[in-house]
Task: structure prediction
Amino acid sequence: MKTPFARALGAVAVAVATPCVVVAVAVLLFLNPIWVGFDQDRSDVAGLTGYSPAQVRQVTGSILSDLVFGPPNFDVAVNGSPVLDVRERGHMADVRTVLTGMGLVALLAAIVLLALGLMSRGAPWFWRAAQTGGKVLAVGVVVVGLAFAVFFDQAFELFHELFFPPGTYSFDPRLEKLVQLFPDQFWSETSVALAGAVLVLALVVVFAAGRIATNAHLTLPDPGTASPAMMPGGSR
Result:
């Protein structure tokens, strides 16, 4: 990018795209049966649902498969009885819509970073912008993480109000399996773990991008040093 305006615009795009990609990577670390099963065991999901541990794994695996790969039917059954009712399946379809939208944003952000990285040829401004995005994300996740830690119920409710239609995400934990499979303890612990992963990844980006920017700056020619051809007596 040859003009200061173009570089400034590119730097803003990099600073915005970097947190999107970092958050997406962190979410992928937890959107898998290994983590979900681990925290379901900690939350005594088998006791809450009345299912055996094997049935919990089977039901959860089916729900995760429908969520990530589709189709979003969420019609898993145990002993011939559907696990989720119509409202629960509708909410999970909404969750998949939100997740797909976030995934598309992250994919676009990754394309922006790749394109600008190639166009800039790894110039210092590119890495400084990525470092700025990492710093902003690190501060943001600390603030949001503290809010979730202190006001988890309110923050969780606000999250649902922002992304889901009213009245579609409230369920009775005594009767409905969705909130028994994924109870409050599961979400509170997963939120803390996710915030920690985002923070670690953001700090890695800050450190790595800063080092690369410094090294790239040191390898650039000193603009104050004239080339031999332009020095008095030099060959032309």
Remarks:
- Strands lie at 77-78, 81-82.
- The chain has one domain: 4-219.
- Confidence is low (pLDDT under 50) at residues 222-236.
